[in-house]
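I am writing to request your help with a piece of structural work I have in hand. Here, with my thanks, is the record as I have it:
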Amino acid sequence: MKQSTIQSCCIVALLALALSATPLQAQNMTMGRIFLKAEAYSEAYAEFLKETQINPKDPEAQTLAALANILDTTRSKGFNDFLNLLSFDKNGRKLGAWTSTINTEALEERLKLEELNGQKFKDFIQNELISKLKKSLNHFEAIPAGKSFLIFLSEQETQISDVYLDHGDVTMLEAALQLICFGLEGLTAQNMHVDVKSILDLLNDEMSVDAFLSFNQNFMKDVSPENIKAARSSFVGFIDNYTDGSKRLQNRTTGHLNHLISINEDQKELEAEFREHLSHLRFEESLNSLFKIEIEESTVTFSADPVRLFETPLRSFTRADSLVGVIRQEAEQMVTRLDLEIEKLSNISRARIIKPLIDTGGRLPDGADILLLQGGFELAHSLLAVLSAHDLNVDLQEIVKLRNEGKLDIQNILTTKETILNLDSPQVMLQARGWLAGMRQNLKEGYSLLQSRRDGKIGILFPSETLLEKTIEALDIALASEIKAHELSGAFLKAKYRINTDPLWGGKINIKNLLPNFNANDPVPGTLPDSAIAGLFPDKIYINNESRIEKLRLPYFLEQPKNTYAQLGEKVTFLIKISGPGTLEYQWYKNGQMIPNANELILVIENTQERDYGTYSVWVKNSVGKTYSQIATLTPVKPVVGSIQVNIQNNTSLPFTVSFSAKSGLSYEFQSSGDLKNWSKVEEINGTGGEVKVTDLREAIFQKQYYRVKLVE
């Protein structure tokens, strides 16, 4: 009896506790919704968090906690402290209606007083943004997978116009957060030790790329394996949740309600294709290459590993040798895999279905496509291997520097470094010969299958048959095992030449030796071959005088804009001279800002005012790209102390002398004018360090004639 009484008391106590907790839980949710409506997101999150601690499996509490946490991001102290550090405007920081921008002048002033390193960006992304996103993801993940629910986003749960959330909406939100995490984690995987002031200097053309990279020696130099692993996990999670969420959206029974996320009827087919493509991007382990091709008897499957984009230090792309190495590795992976895929096929010639489905106009790939594709990869791999066997130890900023100076051509590239294109790894040349031999075989077999196509819906690659024949012919010449005469043309004077390729594949010849001398981009006649070619051409060969590489050339500055001095009201002309193929376009800039309608070879300022003084530059563009000029400065004219005596009678100027002190190393112009606005040069004088006298014997042009001495550069 006593025991029964104790049990009854316990039951009553538990019931009382449960009944008292129910109003408390309702109060948490009600207060959270009130705070949410008032945009007091931190307070709202605190209320919803209390509810999740009482009932961890409550979908409503977990979902609203996740949303409030995300909305609170722009209100957090860490977020705003970081924006203040970057001198963002304090107004306009509202999520969904962002207008705040960086005050560059304030940031530059701040950077004069304190150093700001890019590592702070990384810390902010990891500790503020990613941690917030992960916290919301934890709330979403706490919702039981098989649980069905329907949540109102408004605190008034009776209005049919409210936005509703079910498990499909929440799963899609979870996928979106994981995709954002993927991008942020991939970015922060890179080494971000960089001086922020140097970034501004680089953007303002106050620091060269070379100086920037030298100053920030560790920037983008390596990657964090932990961050890459986290990025891959987030990307896989994004795909899994998107796939699950998509199925839930299609199977929902409340499609008539106003859901946060839905798929329109006319978008279902497109969404299904997108989902299919995503399934071919899901790799829990790295492919060690960007792309993957799998060939079965009836299908060809293309896959890609986007996380691979973050696995390579971005600094690798700033040097020619490392850039070639990265691309070569990708090509080698493709060649090796395709070889294995082709080898296992019993019938390569048959047509196959592409997966995932892509728009090929109803056409199916066949064996010709596979072999020609493999041949293309083998060509890329072989050429890159040959290049990487040579000295490519040159910074790409050297190429950028040549471009900015208007000197980007073959001649200048070959003189950037004395040892460039010298052969460092002779053994690679023999390997490259083997790879090219495999390419030739694949091209021949692919070409044969190409010619035998009958069905009009078979085949997706249609290369020029003439180009294929010439490529195979060139490979036959390059891979010939004996000395034979071959007809050459194009860059060479058309004739038959005996060719011995053994020195090339034996590692006795540098690529540089095979090139003629160049004048800019034009091969110089008679400069190929010479004794350095070591028997590649046993007899002489001759360069075709008409052979040019002009179409591949950027515009080239023959004359840069010059620094100029001018007084108020004077007419000023900036003039450039350009050489370059194709149609040329121009755009002038003043103090780094584009000048409207300044699109000609010359820039004229008719009436110089104070606002016109400053720096001027121009870019010139053709179909290849842009070339940037040097910066020229327009400054007020500097007076020169001297004496001028003029006597004009009967429209004839009598001899007169201008004398002034001219500093050594400076140049001066003696100029005349009839209206003090338009001046013409009479004579140019080089300073000697002493007094200079100039005599004018010209016939007078104007009724009144004025003279001046102007300092030029």
Notes: The mean pLDDT is 82. Residues 239 and 278 are 6 Å apart (CA to CA). The two ends are 114 Å apart (CA to CA).
